[in-house]
Amino acid sequence: MPGPGLTALGQQQAQAIANALAAKGPYAGIFDSQLIRTQQTAAPLANLLGMAPQVLPGLNEIHAGIFEDLPQISPAGLLYLVGPIAWTLGFPIVPMLAPGSTDVNGIVFNRAFTGAVQTIYDASLANPVVAADGNITSVAYSSAFTIGVGTMMNVDNPHPLLLLTHPVPNTGAVVVQGNPEGGWTLVSWDGIPVGPASLPTALFVDVRELITAPQYAAYDIWESLFTGDPAAVINAVRDGADEVGAAVVQFPHAVADDVIDATGHPYLSGLPIGLPSLIP
User: Fold this and answer.
1) How many CA atoms are closer than 13 Å to the CA of 270, on its beta-carbon side?
2) In this structure, is the dihedral angle defined by the CA atoms of residues 203, 205, 209 and 210, taken in order, positive or negative?
3) Do 199 and 218 meet the contact criterion of CB atoms below 8 Å apart?
């Protein structure tokens, strides 16, 4: 799990992004993954600000299983991409096609990722330091692909093709704003501003929310079957039915709201401000 450390170039890049981020602070918190190179990337900013990063397993890179350390441009690399790309398109039930991966599908990955984001959010509210831009902001260091996939699976204005057309480079920044209850908005991607969702994108998100609910429910029911506990199975079925029912009820309302917004009616007030900034 720790993996290799940073190269000399990586250390220079880590110091450069630390200097750039420090000028925009202060920050409510700094977070990183269990990987050595991620922790070494976070260290310069932590040292500049006198802060101790919190390690979150949910920020670990998407596990490649037996494909670990193989070239990205190869049959193995292409198989590695299939699952995560499908997850961003609303199909988290698709398995990771890398044998031995601990991220068996997008549901497992996303629950770990959103759990980490929830921890970041809660910790930031507990230490509400306001950054130079007037927002409570935290910095999280993770692998570029983890940040990209996790972001596109959860923001309300996703652009999944950016994962292929503009991959986040080393120490590139992805900035999101919002909260777990009201939703997350992608603000910028490697320095490129990202605007509000267009109507097609908003409708895609509506469909995503509708079709992911039964996938999560089915996976939870499947997992409950291996517990040998009838009560666990009953609870999984009940909770899944509730989640799917809520998604079905919410779908037409969400579509109507998005259409009304697109026609220029001031119907919705938008998302509350929040955090975090995610940095690979």
Assistant:
1) 9
2) positive
3) no
Query: How far is residue 10 CA from its own chain's centroid?
Result: 23
Structure tokens given for 57: 């397993």
Average pLDDT for consecutive 10-residue bins of the chain (280 residues)?
84 96 96 96 97 97 86 81 96 94 96 98 96 95 96 96 91 95 96 95 98 98 96 98 98 96 62 41
**Token pair recorded at residue 180:** 């777990």
pTM greater than 0.85 (yes/no): yes
* Cross-strand partners of 95: 105
> What's the DSSP call for residue 58?
G
HSE-up of residue 227 (Cα within 13 Å, Cβ side): 13
277-279 and 174-179: which strand pairing? Answer: antiparallel
What is the 8-class DSSP label of residue 101?
-
Q: Please give the Cα distance from 180 to 80 (Å, whole number).
A: 28
